[in-house]
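Justification of computing resources. Each target in the renewal requires a structure prediction run like the one illustrated here; the chain below, 119 residues long, is used simply to show the kind of job we budget for.
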Amino acid sequence: MPHMRFGVYTFERYKLARPKGMKSSWSGPPKGAAAQPQAQRVKFTRYFQEMSSRADRAIIKPEWIQRAIDQPIKEVIQADGRIRRWAQIPEMEGKYLRVILLSDGETVHNAFFDRSFKQ
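Resulting structure tokens:
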């Protein structure tokens, strides 16, 4: 679930709890143990925040946007430096989600289902 903090949304994908009996100085899992993924931080433009209230965009879930950012099936860099990334969303009958990132590679400017996408 996204949380608003200082104008930046964060996706809390994992909640890390301190194991029972450990003191507050716990520095993480023992060496050799699998590392726990950290919560992903994604920034959004004001344009995206306004557009995401539209009925056709309100159905887009934050985890789908994160999936398109982390595991794109295609990426194109536009002439203005913005980055287009696509991901197939099985939960939406295999539709393709296009996410437009600013040139910093981490700020989402737009996200929508791309009806004309071809691999």
